[in-house]
Protein 1
Amino acid sequence: MASIFRQQYTESDKSGKRVTKKSRNWYIDYKGNDGIRRRVKGFTDKIATLQFAAKLEKEAELAQAGIVDRYKEHRKRSLLAHLDEFKKSLESKGCTLQYVNLTYNRVKSLVEGCHFIYLADVQASTVQGWIAERKRDGLGLKSCNYYLGAAKAFFNWMKADRRTDENPLAYLKGFNPKVDIRHKRRALDTDELKRLIEWVANGKKHHSMTGRERLMLYVLAVNTGLRARELASLTWDSFNLSDSEPTVRILAAYSKHRREDVLPLRTDLAMQFANWQREQNANGRDKVFKEFKFASAAKLLKKDLESAGIPYKDESNRIADFHSLPTHSLAILHVTVSVPR
C-alpha cells in the first residue's frame, strides 16, 4: 500500500537552536513491480499527491501482471526530441539534405505554432486551425498540404517506430490545390522559343551563368521535360552520351515521380553536350550546371524573356515561367539548336 508523508529535517533558528521542520512537498512511498520500495517526490498539495500515489501504485500492479504501457517513456519525451530523431531517420534513408531540412522545419513550425510540447498535447483540431490561419495569412493550398503532409509523416514514423499507437492527425485531409491557382501559365510558341534561344546564345552573364550555360539549360529542359530541381541535380555521370541511344538519368531523390527516371535524348543534343563536356574538361562527378540555383529559375528565365522582348505575362495575365518550358512547350520545339562556342 502506498503512503505519503512529509520529510522531516533539522536546521538552526536565529538563536542557533536546532529545530525540526517538515518539507513543503509531500513524498510517496510505494512498492514497485519488482517488489522494491521506492520513494518519489510528490506535490505541495496533499490531494494531488494522493492521486499521484494511486497512479504509481496502479502502474506497478499492471506491470507486475504483465500489462505494461510500452509508450510511457516516449510520452515523457518532448516532441522536438522525437523530431530530432525523425530527422536522423530521414538522413539515414538517403533523403536529400534539402528534403530533410524542409520536412524538419515544416514539422517544427507546426509543433511550435500549435504550442505542442508532448505527444498528449497533439490535437487534430488545433493543427487544422493553425493551418487555416496560415491559409488566411496568404499561404497557398499546396504549401498548406506540404505542412500537413510533413506532420503526418512524422507521426506515421512515430507509430511505425513504436513510439505511439496512433497517428493523431490521420483523419485530416489536405486541400484541393486545383482551386487555388496562383499563376496561370502560358506556353511559349515556336517563334518565341527561337527568339529566346537566339538571344541567350549571345546573351551576357547574369545569375552567375553565362549565355552558353543558360542556353544548354533551356534546350535540355525543353527537350526532356525536366524541371528546375531535376536539372540542378545533374552531374555528367547522369548522361549516357556515347551510345547510339543516348539518355539522361534522374535519381529518385530528385525526380518529381520519386523514382529513378531514364529519359532518351536526341542524338544531335547528345553530341552538343558531349562537346560541351570536353570543352570544360569536366569529370563525371562535376555538376553539369554548376551555377544554376533551381530556386532562382523563375527569375533567371524572366530576365532572359524580357531581354529578348518576349512578354513574361500576356493579355490574360498568364505567365511564362520556368515550368512553362517543360510543361507546355515540349511538343512545339522541333528545331536543331546550333550552340555557339
Note: The first helix runs from residue 46 to 64.
Protein 2
Amino acid sequence: MSDFSFMRSGFDNIQDAVDDEEMKKNVVSIIVKFAEGALKTASKYALHREGSTVVLPEDIKRAMMLEMFLFKHRDNLLEEVEALKEELFDENSDDDEYLEDMPIDEDSDDEEMEFTESKCTCAICRTMNNIYNMWETLEITSPYEILLKQHIENMC
C-alpha cells in the first residue's frame, strides 16, 4: 500500500475553514440579492393594486416565483453580489446606523388584509397575475433552485 492520499496533516484545516467562511458569505450574499429583487417586484405589484399600501405574503410569494425566472439573467449580477457581500460583511460598518431614521408605525392595523390580484395591465402586474401558470414550466438546473422552489411553494 503506497497511496497515502487519504491521510491529512491538519494544515489544510485552516484553508478549509477559510473556504467554508467564504462560501457562507457568498451564499448569504446571493440569497440577499435574490430577496432584494423579489421584494422590489412585490412592492411594485402591491402599489399597483387598487387601494393597497401594504405588501402581503402572497405578493412576496409571487414575486419570489418570478425572481426564479429572472435572477440568473440580471445584468451585472456577479458584480452586484460582490458589492453586496462587501457591504454585508464590512467589519468597519455601523450596521444599525440606517435603522435610527426609520419611521415606526405604531398605529398600524394588525388585521390581516385579504389578497386580491392587481387589475393593472402593466407587464409586471400581468406577469404576477399569471405567475402560477409560468411556475409549472420552470426548469430547475441546480440543487439550490430545487431548495428555493420547495420553500417558495411552502410559503403562505
Note: The CA atoms of residues 42 and 60 lie 5 Å apart.
Protein 3
Amino acid sequence: MKNKFQINIDQKVLDDLRLRLAATIWPDEINNRKWETGTNKEYLQALCAYWQNDFNWDKQQRFLNTFDHFTTTIDDNEIHFIHQPGEGTMNQPILLIHGWPDSFVRFLKLIPRLTKADEDGYSFDVIVPSIPGFGFSGIPKKEGMNPKKIADLFAELMTKELGYEKFSAHGGDWGSSIIEQLALYHEQAVTAIHLTDVPWQHFFTVSEDELSQAEKKYLEEGKKWQQTEGGYASLQGTRPQSLAYGFTDSPAGLAGWLIEKFESWSDSNGDIENSFTKDELLTNATIYWATHTIGPSMRLYYEAMKALMQAKYNPLVKLNPFDKTDEKVNVPTAIAIFPKDIIPAPREYAERFYNIQRWTKMNKGGHFAAMERPEDLADDIRTFVKETIMVM
C-alpha cells in the first residue's frame, strides 16, 4: 500500500551541515585549473561557501514537495517514489530510473514535459522511484541489492502496488542496467524501453574477435577511460565502505566526490554551471547528506561487481543480476546518444544486446541528459513510446 510522503529535513541536520562546512580543512592543490586531478579547489570552496551561507534548502524542499511523493514497502524494502499523473485523455505509465551520483532529482525537469498532454491528448503517468540506498528510499539491511533485485522490486511497484499491467521505462547510468534486467525478466509487463547508454557490464560479455572496427575503437576508448577516469568505479566496486566514512562525515568531501562527475560527464564546455545551477547541484548533494546514503549508493557498485565476477568466473553458479547477460532483450528499444556522455556506443554494438527500433544522435548534452537537455529527451521518449504503443 502506498503512503503519501512529504520531504521534511530536520533543521538540526541543516544546522550541523553548516557548522561542518565552516570547519572544513582544505587540502593543497597543484595545477588543477581544468579539473585534471579531480574537483577544482577554487570552485568547490565557492560552492561550499554558497552551501553554508546562501543555499536555501527550504525553497528547494517546497519545490520538491510540489510533486506527488509516496512510500511503500516491498519485500521488506522501503521504496520512495514520485507518482505524477498525466494530464491527457490517453495516459501511458512510464518508469524513470536514475543512476549515480544523481538521484530522483535527475528527472524533475523531465516529469512536467511528459505529464503534459500533446495535441492528441497523449501523456504519461510518470513514476520515479529512488533506488534502494539512495535518497528517501530505505537503506538495504542485507547484501544482494544488485540491478536484478532492484528490477524485481520496481516491477512489483509498477504492477502490484500501482496496478499497471504494462508500462514503458527510461533511464541512464544504473537506470540502464536496471531497465535491462526489467526487460529480460519482466518482458510481459514492459512494452518499450528508452536508454541513454549501453550498460557497462557488456564490456565483459563480448569477444573482440567478432567486433567491427567501430566496436573495437569503442572498447579501446572504454579501457582508456577506465584507466584515466574510472578509478571511482573500481574503488566503489571493491572498497565502498572505506570511502563512506569520510563522505558521511564531511559535506565538503561528499560534494567534492559528487560534483566532479557532474563536471566531467556533462556538456558544460569547461564551466559546470553551463549545465547545472548551484542550487541543482546542492539539492542533490543535500539529499545524499541528510539521508546518509552516500555509502549505500556506492555499495551498489560492489553488489553488481560481486555478482558479475562470480557469474563470470564460476559459470556453474547462476547469480543475479547477470545470469541472462548472453540473452538479447526482445522488448522494443530506443537509445538516445548525447555527444558528451561517457564514450557513446556505436549502434552495431547496441544491436547485439537490444531490439533497437530507434537510434537518435543528439546535438548537445551529456550523461545527465534529463537535467541538461530535458526538452530533447522528452520529445524523443514521447515519439518512441507513442509510436511503439500505437503499433502494438
Note: The mean pLDDT is 94.
Protein 4
Amino acid sequence: MRQVGKTTLIRSLGKSYLSMDDETLRQKWESGDWSTLESSPAPIVIDEAQKLPGVFERVKLLVDQDRQPGKYLLTGSVRFLSRKQIRESLTGRTSLLELLPLTLREAHSEKLGNFFETLHKNGLPGFLKTPAPNKAVTPAQIDQYLIQGGMPGICFKRDAQVVRQMRDSHLETLLLRDLQLLIRTKVPYEKLRGLLQSIAQNQGQLISLSALGRQTQLSTPTVTQLLRAFEDLFILKSHGKTWYFTDCGMTSFLGASRVDHKLFQMERWVYSELRAQLQYLHRSSFELSSFSTRGGARVPFVVQIEGHPPVGIVVDATQGASEKSLKSLNSLKRTRRKPTVLVALHAGEVAYLSSTGVLCLPFHRIA
C-alpha cells in the first residue's frame, strides 16, 4: 500500500535504486534504452514498477539469461497480478511479498508476536502456563492504535491537523490517480470515498453489495468492480462475505472510530494482528476464513496452518467467554471432521480453560 514504507525498506536492501517516478529514466526505458538497468550492480531496486509495465518483460528476458535469485527487487502500490500485461511476465520467476502496516508491537519497536506457534507448541493447558511477554500489549494501546494505524509515515505524527491533511492527501492519491491505473472509472471522488466510508462502518459484518449500491447511488456491478480495485490497491482485503481495511488508521479516519461498539473495535484489531502474523510467519501455508450458520452461530476467524489442526477464534466484548461465543465455537467443532482448537478472545483480564475445552483469553494476548 502507499505510505507503508516500501521505498525506505527496499533502498536498504539494494545496491542500485531506480525509480519509475523519475520521468527521464522512464522515457529512456520506454524508448528501448535499457542500458541503465543492464549495467547497474545487483540487487537492483525498481520502485513503482507498475508505472512502466514494459519493465517486467525486460526483467523477464534478463532473468532468463541469468537466473541469479534476488537480483531484481520490484515494488509497486498496485497489485501486479491485477494487470494482464504484467501478470503474464511473472509466471515461475518471482516471489510476491506484501508489506503490511506496522503492527502495534512493531510500532513500539518490538518483535512481531507469534500466537499460533505458541499455541501449537504448548497446547491449551500449556498455553495458560506460558507467561505473557514482558511488554504486554494493553487495551489502551490498542485503542490508540485503532485511531493512529500503522502507516509509518503517518502514525507517528502528533499534530492531529497534520495527520488529517496527510490522510486526505493519501486517500485522494489512491482514488484519483492510482485507481485509474486499474479501471477507467468516472465515479466522482465523493462517491468513491462514500463507498469506503460505508465499508468502514460495516467491516466484519455481512455486507450486501446491493445495499452498498443504494447507499452510494451506484449499480451493483460498479460496486463489485470498485471493491476488486480497492483490493488491488491494498486498501481492503476480502474476508468471507465481508471486507477489512488494511490499515486501522484509515478505517478510523473514514468514520469508524465513531462507532461506539466495543466488539466492532476489538474484531478489527484482532483481524489486523492475525493477518500480520499469518502473512509474515506462515506466508505460504495458511488459510484465514470465517464460519457462520443460519441459526446465528458466528466464528469470525478460522485459521488453518499446514500441518496443524484448524483454530476457530471468536471475539467477545464481555469480561469472559459468553454462552453465545461458546455455542458458536462448538457449532464449528461439530462441522469439522478433524479436531479443532477453539479460542475465545474476551475483554476481561483472566485466562482460563472452559469446561468444554475452549481456551478463553484476554484479547490482547494474541499479540
Note: The chain has three domains: 6-87, 111-137+260-366, 152-246.
